[in-house]
Write a structure and sequence with these properties.
The protein has helices spanning 5-8, 22-25, 34-41, 50-55, 61-70, 78-94, 105-115, 117-120, 124-129, 149-153, 216-221, 268-271; strands at residues 133-139, 143-147, 163-166, 175-183, 204-207, 210-214, 227-229, 234-239. By secondary structure, the protein is an alpha+beta fold. The protein has one domain (5-271). The strands form 2 sheets. It has a 5-stranded antiparallel β-sheet. Strands 6-5-7 form a 3-stranded antiparallel β-sheet. The protein starts with a helix and ends with a helix.
């Protein structure tokens, strides 16, 4: 099974022109029925355009302050961004076997705290009511990303992840997973006893707190009222503890096959079925 290149970079908060665009994810018309094509068109995929992001409700003052703090790290070069993307692909292919979720009292305690999040956020409406904003729309294999930027720079708390993943873009969409996104100069140790591998996403362009570009393209296209975040001092980890969306690829895998289908494929093979 070969992962589609754009989506195999795992996540950030969304797709970008160099990491999982709408064009990357869409099967050809000849492989899909009319009904499937209609279903595909009805769902917004991945990042917002700058114009779309500007029309969204403003993020909170605390989120604005957090974004400004995250802008202070040294910006990576285009070559460094490309090298990091290659590391993501290598890391994804190595996931799964090393996971040991019952290896120690520490990982058992951490997983209990992660499991407790599901009852707090049964749907995206609950996330919105708690101050999260939709930062990136649905991505096959990952979901729709709701973020609270202020939580990124606050002390790490497993029970309060900075990012939540939902099965669709609507407020009624169910929680499918968690995305821990935290400010740190060094790789976090949380979930380490379970074999988790934290990763980074460099060069993120935000408009109104929503992702509009990532990676090498963001380095050249992010301007005007947009905020360009380096990402050197921010780390991410996907965790899939939600009942009904268990990830056969592993608790900490970047992509979840439960969120992949013929209409929303995560592999070349799925897009041709």
């Amino acid at each position: 099974m070969r992962l589609r290149t754009g989506l195999a970079c795992g996540l950030l908060i969304a797709a970008s022109s160099s990491c999982g665009t709408d064009r990357d994810a869409k099967p050809t018309a000849t492989t899909m029925s009319d009904a499937e094509q209609a279903a595909r068109r009805s769902v917004g995929i991945g990042q917002f355009t700058p114009a779309e992001a500007a029309r969204e409700l403003p993020v909170s003052a605390a989120d604005v302050e957090a974004i400004q703090k995250l802008k202070t790290a040294v910006m990576p070069t285009a070559a460094e961004v490309d090298a990091l993307r290659s590391q993501h692909l290598d890391m994804e292919s190595a996931r799964g076997a090393a996971e040991t979720l019952d290896a120690s009292p520490t990982i058992r305690t951490e997983m209990r705290a992660a499991n407790s999040v599901a009852s707090k956020f049964p749907n995206a409406q609950a996330a919105k009511d708690s101050g999260y904003v939709l930062a990136s729309r649905f991505l096959p294999g990952i979901g729709a990303h709701w973020i609270k930027w202020s939580a990124v720079v606050e002390p790490f708390d497993i029970a309060n992840p900075a990012m939540l993943l939902f099965e669709g873009n609507e407020l009624v969409s169910s929680l499918v997973g968690l995305s821990y996104f935290t400010h740190s100069e060094t790789v976090p140790l949380w979930f380490g006893d379970g074999g988790a591998q934290w990763h980074q996403h460099w060069a993120m362009c935000l408009v109104n707190g929503r992702l509009v570009a990532e990676g090498a393209s963001a380095l050249t296209s992010c301007g005007g009222n947009a905020d360009l975040i380096s990402g050197r001092d921010v780390w991410m980890l996907h965790v899939w503890p939600v009942d009904g969306f268990a990830n056969p690829s592993g608790m900490f895998a970047a992509l979840n096959p439960a969120l992949c289908s013929r209409v929303f494929p995560c592999t070349e093979e799925q897009s041709q079925q």
